[in-house]
Amino acid sequence: MSPDGIYGDETVAIVKDFQRKQGLGVDGIVGKNTMAALDTRFEWLSHRVRLHFISISLATVPFEESFSKAQKVYGQYGIDIQFGSGRSLLLTPAETAMFERIDQQCNWELTSGEYDKLHRLGPTVPAFEIKVYFVDKMRGVLGCGGHAPGRPAATVAKEAWRWDMGHEVGHVLLTKTFTPVHHPHQDNLMNAFPANNEVVKLLTDAQVRKIRTHPCCKRQYPVSPAY
User: Fold this and answer.
1) What is the mean predicted confidence (pLDDT) over 164-191?
2) Using CA atoms, how far apart are residues 54 and 65, in angstroms rounded to an integer?
3) ∠ at Cα 51 (193, 127), nearest 5°?
4) Mean per-residue pLDDT of the chain
5) At 179, is the secondary structure helix, strand, or coil?
6) Which of 7, 134, 152, 192 lies at a C-alpha separation of 20 to 30 Å from 86?
7) Mean of the pLDDT values across residues 138-161?
């Protein structure tokens, strides 16, 4: 359903269905017992994806906003988007000229050309963590989730919208085998142009299941409290 922030008839029906399946009193109200039942299903962030940010251009949307938006989307599904590292690249004049505008077409596997050269820049990161590059301009797109096999990376343009960074990371995690590549609903993170508003974007069950199978989406376990 499309989220509207209203506790209306659709929401009441879903809550009643959940209560019925949990053997609770069916009243459509999220009270103490219903909340406890929900807590048993969503106890902690069960998976994590660690990102490393490399910038050669300041984004129009502040980094903190695009990062927090990604955390909110994935966090709904128990996936913790973590900050691994961040740095700006000090490019040579030749590199600056090369990457002022990425003219290469965005494809799933990028083993040559500007993207490949760009993704080789910056620090070495663990094999199952993702690099995210912020650049000035790109050919016809605001982001690209294509990368070379074994070097997971996404590229985001300066003028990208607030949800685009999370969207491109989603392409990396879903891989080229997932269909549809772009979801038809604008409130889905993987829509070709996810609505540029404050409404937190969604993922489908199929998308979440696929993301959790990616090597960069690591299973994590709750930490026992110290006494």
Assistant:
1) 96
2) 16
3) 120
4) 91
5) coil
6) 192
7) 95
Q: Which amino acid is at 78?
A: G
Residue with tokens 């990028």, as numbered in its chain: 110
Instruction: Give 180-188's long-range contacts (Cβ < 8 A, gap of 24+).
Output: 183/207, 185/2, 187/2, 187/3
Q: Which residues of 36-45 are buried (b: 16+ CB within 10 A; e: fewer)?
A: ebeeeeeeeb
The reported pLDDT for the residue numbered 94 is 87
* Domains, the chain: 47-219 (3.40.390.10)
Instruction: Give the pLDDT of residue 43.
Output: 60
- Which of 160, 185, 176 is closest to 210 using CA atoms? 176
Say if residues 156 and 164 touch (Cβ distance below 8 Å): yes
Which three-class secondary structure string do you get for 8-77?
CHHHHHHHHHHHHHHCCCCCCCCCHHHHHHHHHHCCCCCEEEEEEEEECCCCCCCHHHHHHHHHHHHHCC
Q: Which residues contact 124 (CB under 8 A, 6 or more apart)?
A: none
Report the candidate in 59, 79, 63, 60 with the shortest Cα–Cα distance to residue 71: 79
CB of 47 closer than 8 Å to CB of 80: yes
> d(Cα 8, Cα 192) in Å, to the nearest integer?
29
Nearest to 16 by CA among 27, 3, 32, 31: 27
Within 8 A by CB and 6+ apart from 91, the residues are 56, 99, 121
What is the mean predicted confidence (pLDDT) over 98-120? Answer: 94
**Coil/strand/helix, residue 219:** strand
222 vs 126, higher pLDDT: 126
